[in-house]
Write a structure and sequence with these properties.
Structural class: mainly beta
Oligomer: single chain
Radius of gyration: 21 Å
Number of strands: 17
CATH class of the largest domain: Mainly Beta
């Protein structure tokens, strides 16, 4: 079964002239959309359409599965010992903070990559958390499989979590925990969602 989200401006019924891109998980059923619509199966990255004579084509075009969302976080070259949330404006704020990036897609995989310009002293622990709520009532849950460490002499780390780890609408934050005050020449972190 498929569910659909109309990403166009019409409703897919009545005097609608089509031309919308609908999306959902699984191939489209003939009961959704109108003639002229297209449909993206977000599970397989397959585009169907246009719908003609009230029917969807039996096959579609499978698109490449490159990165569709990438959130970059840069942190200044020094931080005191402690735990921080990386912000998108080139800084870090002390925990607790409800800052996060809302993921606009269901991700087939999510990767976390971190690189320092200089060699780290001590350990830089990076982890991705789902944020629920806001302000002082915000709660944080670690995303399984999305944490890595840059330790003495290293300059990067990278991990990837499989499908299901992150869903459309999840609000994510990257937390950094360093075990000593450090100057590493700058830290760049990329959080990428791929279809």
């Amino acid at each position: 079964t498929s569910t659909s989200t109309n990403t166009g401006t019409g409703t897919g019924s009545g005097s609608d002239t089509g031309g919308h891109i609908l999306s959902g998980s699984g191939a489209p059923s003939d009961s959704i959309g109108v003639d002229g619509d297209f449909y993206l199966d977000t599970t397989t990255s397959t585009l169907y359409g246009p719908k003609t004579g009230g029917k969807w084509p039996g096959t579609g075009i499978t698109m490449t599965t490159g990165t569709v969302y990438s959130g970059n976080f840069n942190v200044p070259d020094t931080l005191s010992r402690g735990a921080y949330v990386m912000t998108g404006d080139g800084g870090a704020v002390a925990l607790p903070s409800d800052f996060g990036v809302t993921i606009p897609y269901d991700c087939r995989s999510v990767s976390l990559t971190a690189t320092t310009l200089g060699k780290a002293t001590g350990a830089l622990n990076l982890a991705v958390f789902k944020v629920t709520g806001s302000g002082v009532s915000a709660t944080y849950a670690p995303v399984s499989g999305l944490s890595c460490k840059i330790s003495n002499g290293q300059q990067n780390c990278s991990v990837q979590a499989p499908a299901g780890a992150v869903a459309h609408g999840d609000k994510l934050q990257v937390q950094l925990d360093n075990n000593q005050a450090t100057g590493w020449g700058g830290l760049s972190v990329n959080l990428a969602c791929s279809l």
